[in-house]
Amino acid sequence: MFKKVSGTKDILPEEAVIWQRLEEISRNTFALYNFREIRPPLIEEAALFNRSLGEGTEIVQKQMFLVHNKNEAYALRPEGTASIVRAYIENNLNKTNGFVKLYYIGPMFRLERPQKGRLRQFHHIGCEAIGSPDPGLDIEIITLADNLLRNFSIEGYTIKINSLGCRPDKKKLVDSLRQGLKAKLERLCPECVIRFETNPLRILDCKNDACKEVVAGLNISDTYLCPDCREHFNKVKAGLDFLKISYAISPRLVRGLDYYTGTVFEITQKDLGAQDAIGAGGRYNNLVQELGGEQAGAIGFAFGAERLLLAQNKNINIPDGNLVYLITLGEPAKLEGLKVLDELRRNGVPCDTNYEDKSLKGAMRKANDLNSRFVLIIGDNEIEKGTITLKDMRSGEQKEVKTKDILKEIK
Ligand code: HAM
């Protein structure tokens, strides 16, 4: 018997309705902010991610699902931002649309060690706003993330924010980190000793206890920020204060990916254990240019949908079923039933029937399991009288209705 690949999941119908609701809430909320959907391919040139996320990042070094074909290397997308910036440039969205607000919902792939809340195929609900450096946009994006979480009925989360500043500021931050860590190298794990050379910012995210201790002892002040970046970040904080969005300033939040500059944020939820980040994002003001486009300020975020579902303490409201379940008893009833089902479906009424050979009692149980709104019964008696027995599953009321009136009655 074949089994699913480790770190992947079958989303079965009972769970799929919850996903549909999550997606519907997302789409409705994104629409309130005038974001429009984009659906880039799941596969891209691997070099796109190497260039955008950075050669020294965990994702590029260890986690990419690579597909080789002759001299080409493709990757199953590990995240959405790079693809969307590629699509923005390739489709000239800067020229046709100017400033754009795009959202996406779909699977991402990372070759990680699977555990609770960490999969190899997981889903992002994310957005990217490209074409403006305005701090007002940072405020809108963080507010949008907060609103999505409220609409998903998620509680107990913390929005952590920081600013990495522009490229020269970020370099100053990296230099000062190296300075602070230089004398403590022998206390770091072997991987962090390599990170010290390749990407010291990643040491701040290391889960090793000894490294955490070293990091906790570092004095990280925001002196690396230039006056413009400091003013930008102050405006973002003032806007969030004004809107009463609660957040925590987190000087150790640096985000592992190279493209980030300026405001960065991460949202954690208290009940999730080791994998407690439900979403993250930030500005990437140089990426469009670095990938061959014109200079364009940009910011976005992505939620991990599986983690959102783990973090929900109340189930999201699933609207009641509105299925009509038709039970036919005997051959003539089956034929008549085909006509009834066809008429109902052509008029937009969702319905199903008993294809399994069950007794009336068994078929009623099935109708119940399917959370049917109405049950219709056609047997020899009904055929003779030209009627259908209609049962309202909410009130339990039952009556006979002329076959020709059934659509009107149900509507
Ligand atoms: P990220 O932090 O790598 O950011 O991923 C965003 C979220 O995806 C995480 O906070 C987490 O909830 C979820 N996630 C990541 N890896 C896994 C996994 N293996 N299994 C389950 N969930 C996972 C990005 O990808 C950026 N592109 C976000 C962004 C958009 N920044 C700007 N725009």
Task: For this entry, give a set of tags.
alpha+beta; single chain; eight-stranded mixed β-sheet; BirA Bifunctional Protein, domain 2; binds histidyl-adenosine monophosphate; 2 domains; Rossmann fold; 411 residues; five-stranded mixed β-sheet
How far apart are the first and last residues' alpha carbons, in Å? 46 Å
CATH secondary-structure class of the largest domain: Alpha Beta
Q: Would you identify the CATH architecture of the largest domain? A: 2-Layer Sandwich
Give the overall shape.
elongated
Mean pLDDT: 94
* Total beta-strand segments: 16
CATH topology of the largest domain: BirA Bifunctional Protein, domain 2
- The number of distinct helices, counting runs of at least 4 residues, comes to 16
Provide the helix percentage. 25-40%
- Strand order within the widest sheet? 1-5-6-11-10-9-7-8
Any idea how many domains? 2
Oligomer: single chain
Bound molecules: histidyl-adenosine monophosphate
What is the radius of gyration computed over CA atoms, rounded to a whole number of angstroms? 27 Å
Structural class by helix and strand composition = alpha+beta
The CATH superfamily of the largest domain bears the name Bira Bifunctional Protein, Domain 2
Largest sheet, in brief, is: 8 strands, mixed
Beta-strand fraction estimate = 15-25%
